[in-house]
Amino acid sequence: MSKTVVCRCEDITLPELEECLAKGHHDVESVKRYTGLATGPCQGKSCLPLCLDVMARTLGLDPSELSLTRLRPPVAPVALGTLAAWHDGRARDDWTGEA
Fold it and tell me: Is residue 70 part of a domain?
């Protein structure tokens, strides 16, 4: 069994990706949901290029024919200051400075 790691964040190996493709998951979103690939701290910055290459070779496609994952923005915009103020599990109110 190959120990080639495709996604370091989620510890997804090349055989696991190939198995996923063999089971019929032929788009990045489906692969992501089945394996967890691209859901770690890097959010796919490290693993998506390799994933797309493996998928293209396996499926006989050009990598440009494969779509990337769906973007899911927050339901409501959040100010970066609010996120930066998060400390010990409590958010600080940017206007009052109170927790």
Answer: no
Q: Tell me: the pLDDT tens digits for 39-86?
A: 888 888 888 889 999 999 999 988 778 877 666 666 778 787 777 776
Q: Residue 37 and residue 5: Cα distance in Å, rounded?
A: 11
Residue 39, domain extent = 5-65
In a domain, 77, yes or no: no
**Nearest-angstrom CA–CA distance, 44 and 36:** 10
Question: Within 13 A of 21's CA, how many CA atoms are on the CB side?
Answer: 17
Using pLDDT thresholds of 50, 70 and 90, give the confidence band for residue 92.
low
Q: How many domains does the chain have?
A: 1
* Three-class SS state of 99: coil
